Amino acid sequence: MDFAEALDSTWNFFRQGGFFMLLLGLCSLVGLTVILMKSLGLKRSRILPDRLGIEVERFEEHLEAGTLGDLQSEFAREENALSRLCSVALKNVGRSQGEVQEVVQSSAREEIVRMNAGMSVLEVIITISPLLGLLGTASGLVTAFSDFDDKENIRTGIATALSTTIIGIAITVPAVIAQSIFSRKIELFSARLEVLLGRVVSACHQHVFFRDK
User: How many CB atoms lie within 10 A of CB 11?
Assistant: First the structure.
């Protein structure tokens, strides 16, 4: 089979799905767009760069040694979630530890919401794609059994039923895998951010406390 025949065969497969295949195609397009956007948006460099994470772990050492200048400059650029949250913590130095924690937690919730952007769309795609496939299946079977004397009608109906079922499942499987990967990433990033920010807030509070003493 040459390329032209393969292309024609593929086109016929999708054409047999009828109206429901158009809806499934739209679901596929939206799902791929969300997966691509989340893959870029959840890159470690955009959330919690390894090098910056190591430096934040040593935040108390920098604070005591008076070498916080470069790190503060990086926080001020706010190029990733960690730097933005650390910047919020430093801007509120001097307030009580509880107040700083509350402000940082509010900003952290905003960052988590940002990380979860698009996940609800992926959940909708996972839910409706197999349902659209089943609707296409039911519609095809109705067409197939509506007239047993018309062999072409039966063939068309069965083709519609099978093609929409296959595409519905084919869209759902990678979407479920992607959702699982993204959810795990968000969970890990959130936990790591919480630990690092806790260290920053605690170190700042202790430094201010002892300085005032």
Answer: 10
Residue 213 belongs to a domain = no
Compute and round to an integer the Cα radius of gyration of the chain. 27
Cα separation, 17 vs 170, in Å, equals: 14
Global model pTM greater than 0.70: yes
What pLDDT shows up at residue 113?
A: 94
The domain tally of the chain equals 1
Give the pLDDT confidence score for residue 114 in this predicted structure. Answer: 93
Q: How far apart are the first and last CA of the chain?
A: 84
40 by DSSP, 3-state: which?
A: helix
Buried (b) or exposed (e) across 18-44, using 16+ Cβ within 10 A? bebbebbeebbebbeebbeebeeebee
CA dist., res. 68 & res. 91, Å (int): 14
Domain range for 175 is: 19-207
Spans of the chain, pLDDT less than 50: 209-213
Q: Is residue 179 part of a domain?
A: yes
